[in-house]
């Protein structure tokens, strides 16, 4: 690896690491001028980086398959700490085929990547192994696992990175782990039945939803073999997490809008069968 130092506007120095190898997942790309592209890639070592790719529309361009959205593999190039990075070559390139071809799976995968980008610093992505977690989530969705549940797992487990640490292992008041529970936004976690009176505005969740809320907060995607959740419970989980993200996290990722629209369409078709 070669380090090059450049002085840019305002006397600030830019570091360009040449000849570095990294794993990557292509997030998006957009045209730049007539023949070039800017390609955003989630990398295992440097977080989200934007790469300048020259001559995309020239005859004989060799990186075409490697910069398609939802492509993943090993990349070699130059990484800039400020500004654009560059790709030299690639190997072991493949694409999440089902995600690419299915508009619903595509929407879930795009939302996961957008949410991760909002939640995590580059240091967290690298040190907390979130790249591998995201890669596994996309693999599971591509293999046919329920995309809504995989997305819920990511959403719940990202809450800590947003500064929200809901207590889901026990009652926030008495630490009981065995009674009936409900979620309280005011208390930041679960209240057992004995303490429900403390928050009349608790979410009034059914126990199956509470069970899955607790389970998904600790499940290891690498060890997930199968998971099936009833449609009503999935709807309740979606509503619960929407409440938490709206009122406690306070963000709304634009990619979520399309998911919400698809949910509305599904409900419309069910109601009009």
Concise structural overview:
The protein contains eight helices and nine strands. It has 273 residues and is an alpha+beta fold.
What features would you describe in this structure?
The protein is an alpha+beta fold. It folds into 2 domains: 2-95, OB fold (Dihydrolipoamide Acetyltransferase, E2P) (Beta Barrel), CATH 2.40.50.140; 100-166 and 217-271. 37% of the residues lie in helices and 27% in strands. It has helices at 97-101, 103-119, 122-127, 130-143, 147-158, 207-216, 231-249, 254-271, and strands spanning 2-7, 13-32, 36-43, 47-53, 71-80, 85-95, 167-171, 181-184, 189-192. Helix 2 packs antiparallel against helix 4 and helix 4 (130-143) runs antiparallel to helix 5. Mean pLDDT is 90; it is low at 5-11. Belongs to the RecO family. This is DNA repair protein RecO. It holds the Pfam family RecO_N. InterPro entries: ARFGAP/RecO, DNA_rep/recomb_RecO_N, NA-bd_OB-fold, RecO, RecO_C.
Give the number of domains: 2
Mean pLDDT: 90
Morphology: elongated
Structural class comes to: alpha+beta
- Counting DSSP E segments of at least 2 residues, the number of strands comes to 9
Main-sheet strand order equals 2-3-4-6-5
Cα distance, first to last residue? 61 Å
Order of helices and strands: EEEEEEHHHHHEEEHHH
Contiguous helical run count:
8
Please tell me how large the radius of gyration is: 22 Å
Strand content: 25-35%
Roughly how much helix do the residues carry, as a percent range? 25-40%
Q: Main beta sheet, described? A: 5 strands, mixed, barrel
Low-confidence stretches: 5-11
Please identify the oligomeric state: single chain
Domain DNA replication/recombination mediator RecO N-terminal: 23-94
Keywords: DNA damage, DNA recombination, DNA repair
Function: Involved in DNA repair and RecF pathway recombination.
Family: Belongs to the RecO family.
């Amino acid at each position: 690896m070669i380090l090059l130092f450049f002085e840019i506007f305002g006397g600030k120095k830019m570091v360009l690491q040449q000849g570095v190898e990294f794993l990557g997942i292509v997030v998006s790309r957009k045209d730049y001028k007539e023949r070039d592209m800017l390609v955003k890639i989630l990398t295992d070592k440097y977080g989200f980086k934007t790469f300048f790719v020259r001559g995309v529309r020239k005859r004989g361009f060799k990186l075409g398959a490697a910069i398609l959205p939802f492509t993943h593999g090993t990349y070699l190039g130059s990484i800039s700490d400020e500004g654009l990075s560059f790709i030299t070559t690639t190997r072991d390139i493949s694409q999440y085929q089902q995600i690419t071809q299915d508009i619903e799976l595509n929407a879930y995968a795009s939302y996961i990547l957008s949410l991760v980008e909002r939640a995590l610093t580059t240091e967290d992505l690298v040190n907390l192994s979130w790249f591998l977690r995201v890669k596994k989530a996309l693999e599971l969705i591509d293999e046919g696992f329920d995309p809504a549940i995989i997305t819920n797992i990511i959403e719940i487990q990202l809450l800590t990175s947003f500064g929200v640490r809901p207590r889901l292992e026990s009652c926030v008041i008495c630490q009981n782990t065995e009674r009936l529970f409900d979620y309280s936004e005011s208390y930041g976690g679960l209240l057992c039945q004995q303490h429900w009176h403390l928050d009349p505005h608790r979410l009034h969740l059914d126990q199956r939803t509470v069970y899955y809320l607790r389970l998904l907060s600790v499940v290891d995607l690498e060890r997930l073999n199968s998971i099936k959740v009833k449609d009503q419970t999935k709807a309740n989980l979606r509503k619960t997490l929407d409440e938490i993200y709206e009122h406690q996290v306070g963000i709304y990722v634009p990619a979520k809008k399309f998911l919400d629209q698809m949910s509305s369409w599904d409900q419309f078709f069910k109601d009009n069968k």
